[in-house]
Amino acid sequence: MKEERQLIMLPGPTNVPDRVMRAMMKPIINHRGPKFEALYESIMENLKYVFQTKNEAFVLTSSGTGSIECAFSNLVNSGDKVVVPVFGFFSERLRETAVRRGAKIIEVPVEWGNAPTAEQIKQVIKHEGNVKAVAIVHNETSTGVTVRDLPRIGKITKENNVLLIVDAISILGGDQLPVDDWNIDVCFAGSQKCLTGPPGVAVISVSDKAWEAIKRNNNRPYYFDLMRIREYSAKKATPFTPAIPVFYALDEALKVIREESLENRFKRHATCAKAFYSGFEALKLTPYPKEDVRSNTVIVVNVPSKVNCEMVRQVMRERYRVLIAGGLGKLKGQVFRIGCMGIISQAETLATINALENALADSNFPVDFSAGVEAARKGFQS
Ligand SMILES: Cc1ncc(COP(=O)(O)O)c(C=O)c1O
Q1: Which atom from ligand 1 is nearest to the alpha carbon of 298?
Q2: Residue in 169, 170, 250 to alter for ligand 1 test, most ligand atoms within 8 A of Cβ
Q3: CA 168 to ligand 1: nearest atom
Q4: Ligand 1 atom closest to 190 (CA)
Q5: DSSP readout, 181-207?
Q6: Could you tell me whether strands 145-146 and 133-137 are parallel, antiparallel, or unpaired per DSSP bridges?
Q7: From ligand 1's centre to the CA of 141, what distance in Å?
Q8: Where are the domains of the chain?
Q9: Whose C-alpha lies nearest to ligand 1, atom 10?
Q10: H helices within the chain, ranges in order?
């Protein structure tokens, strides 16, 4: 059967450059030997560049959720007070992971489509006292919201000696996130999103302040024990068998990022995001998030009334070979979600808007034909 390429505009996994895919064809090597050490060293150097950190960083053989589990199981114990702003499906999951660790959750409820503010976090920390950590999803993939107040939240957690744990799964490598400057203690992401790798590994950074808490924790997990991972990392190794082909791919993907530079990469994502928003607005599709918190890496727009989300996605997939995602949790059937990640450029942006325009027309939604593509195209010209 002929394999047809699709344009993967999901908010992860995303399109992986051929160069990165080819890296996985290298022979399997012994993960206790010099070749793996060289690979590990190369990954570490570029990973710290991506995190913009002098802290230690690690690669975990797991999906992004593994890194959430790793962070909580190393830092949070029964009864610890953890502040979790909840403003979408993935922050609900973050809360759930902390609950499973026995943490005493102090939830900061935020309306979906909006983001928590530094002021809210400040008040909660002050009011509660004795808070161990603030755990926050920086880019809510379910609502297309970025927490633009994160640098200020980092200042507050630092001043109050509270740990800051950041789920950057759908944003690291696609938008500004200087881990050290923003005082983030633990930050993690998955390989399959803005890092432009295949699914299979997660990355995590750990600050000195976090190490102090980890050392004191005598109930650390077995597989994700960061103390043990650190020991092996000093020898350019991992405690357990790593997903070697995905490590090769991650190495190549990080090299691609370094060659482009973070600055250029962030600009490219921001330009494409802006074009998406203008294109969709021209099609009279309203963005789900509030304007000042809209993400540059995940674009979420409301499904117009009387339009069947699943049918439009199916037409896009089968007729135009463009994959986009639908809503999660209470937004099921109500929003389209598009990944503006990784290789994203004018070509993918216009092709996606064009496919959505056509699929909406095919579904009898009255569209002002080409208005979306034209508005987005203008965005690129300016
Ligand atoms: C913000 C966020 N957190 C967690 C996850 C879960 O990651 P994974 O599916 O790689 O385990 C995702 C996946 O989309 C995400 O976007």
Answers
A1: 16
A2: 169
A3: 1
A4: 10
A5: TTT-SEEEEETTSTT---SS-EEEEE-
A6: unpaired
A7: 8
A8: 7-12+261-381, 18-260
A9: 64
A10: 18-23, 34-51, 64-75, 89-100, 118-128, 150-159, 208-216, 226-234, 244-260, 262-282, 309-320, 346-362, 371-381
**CB-ligand 1 contact for 105 (6 Å cutoff):** no
pLDDT in tens, 147-157: 999 999 999 99
Superfamily of segment(s) 7-12+261-381: Aspartate Aminotransferase, domain 1 (3.90.1150.10)
The Cα 89–Cα 93 span in angstroms is 6
167 lines ligand 1 (CB under 6 A): yes
Q: What is the structure's pLDDT at 321?
A: 97
Q: State how far the Cα of 351 lies from the Cα of 379, in Å rounded to an integer.
A: 15
Mean per-residue pLDDT pooled into runs of 10, the chain (382 residues):
85 97 98 98 98 98 98 96 98 97 96 98 97 98 98 98 98 98 98 98 98 96 98 98 98 98 98 98 96 98 95 97 97 98 98 97 89 94 80
* CATH topology assigned to domain 18-260: Aspartate Aminotransferase; domain 2 (3.40.640)
- Segment 309-359, tens digit of pLDDT: 999 999 999 999 999 999 999 999 999 999 999 999 999 999 999 999 999
Is the CB of 149 within 6 Å of ligand 1?
Answer: no
* 193 Cα–ligand 1 center, Å: 9
- Residue 1's pLDDT is 60
Closest among 337, 343, 350 to 380, alpha carbons compared: 350
Tokens read off for 174 = 């696609």
* Residue 289 alpha carbon to ligand 1 centre in Å: 19
Check if 7-12+261-381 and 18-260 are the same fold: no
| 279 CB within 6 A, ligand 1 | no
Does this model's pTM top 0.90? My answer is: yes
Residue 113, both tokens:
């489509």
Report the separation in Å between the CA atom of 192 and the middle of ligand 1, taken as the mean of its atom positions: 10
Instruction: Using the mean position of ligand 1's atoms as its centre, give its distance from the Cα of residue 381 in Å.
Output: 33
> What one-character-per-residue DSSP string does 349-381 give?
HHHHHHHHHHHHHHTT----TTHHHHHHHHHHH
169 Cβ below 6 A of ligand 1: yes
